[in-house]
Design goal:
It is a single chain. The protein contains one helix and nine strands; from the N terminus they run αβββββββββ. The chain has a nine-stranded antiparallel sheet with strand order 4-3-2-1-9-8-7-6-5, with no helix packed on it. The protein is 21% helix and 50% strand. It is globular and about 75 Å long. It has two domains: 30 residues; 98 residues, Lipocalin. The longest helix is centred in the first third of the chain and has 27 residues. The relative contact order is 0.14. The chain is of the alpha+beta class. The chain starts with a helix and ends with a strand.
Length: 129
């Protein structure tokens, strides 16, 4: 009986420690998306790199804020329910709205931008600074 009590106590302590560590990780580990990214927007695979900044300043629930290509991110959404973290957001300049989506895989961002008024779409890749 005494051995069962000690075993139950040890199991309970291990569960408590693991739960506390998971809680610490959830609150102290920033989401890997947060930070400054350098995005390569080259128009063709053969072109020289054309680099712009993508900055994620905050994530709250399934939304995020920041800037891309010098414009504020609007409607920033993330989906963390899959094996990769997916993002979608819009930006705009004086004349056009731009739609972007992508995913985080192995520390790299991969995505695509679309602007219907300019009749263009462009894939891009990014690395975190």
């Amino acid at each position: 009986m005494k051995k069962q009590y000690v075993l139950a106590l040890l199991i309970s302590m291990c569960i408590t420690i693991i739960s506390a560590q998971e809680a610490d990780m959830a609150t102290s580990s920033p989401n890997p998306l947060i930070g400054e990214w350098t995005i390569d927007l080259r128009p063709t695979p053969e072109s020289e790199g054309y680099y712009q900044k993508f900055v994620v300043t905050a994530i709250e629930g399934n939304t995020f804020t920041g800037t891309f290509y010098g414009s504020p991110i609007e409607n920033g959404l993330i989906n963390q329910n899959w094996d990769k973290l997916y993002v979608a957001f819009t930006t705009s300049d004086a004349s056009n709205d731009y739609y972007h989506s992508g995913y985080l895989e192995n520390g790299s961002l991969k995505g695509i931008s679309y602007c219907p008024n300019r009749a263009f779409t462009a894939p891009w890749t990014g690395v975190k600074q």
